[in-house]
Design goal:
six-stranded antiparallel β-sheet, 1 helix, globular
Length: 78
């Protein structure tokens, strides 16, 4: 049986923000955070080659949204 701390640390690692957006893939479900608050959630449509721009298809009826790393947002896998 695994130690409880091991399981919790794996969950925390998965929920951690992604600093290098280039490792994200289209179709992954993510949350966009700004000042520790979730401002958007949905599925990645595309990531720029530089990894500085992300297009997100929101969970709701909204249009695709564009997020830029330079705007101070963070990405967290869900």
């Amino acid at each position: 049986m695994k130690a409880r701390g091991t399981v919790l640390s794996r969950r925390a690692a998965f929920a951690a923000t992604v600093s290098d957006w280039r490792i994200l893939k289209a179709g992954e479900r993510v949350e966009i955070l700004k000042h520790a608050h979730v401002v958007a959630a949905g599925e990645i449509e595309e990531i720029s080659v530089s990894g500085n721009v992300l297009w997100l298809v929101p969970s709701g009826p909204l249009d695709t949204q564009l997020f830029m790393k330079s705007d101070g947002v963070q990405v967290r896998r869900t």
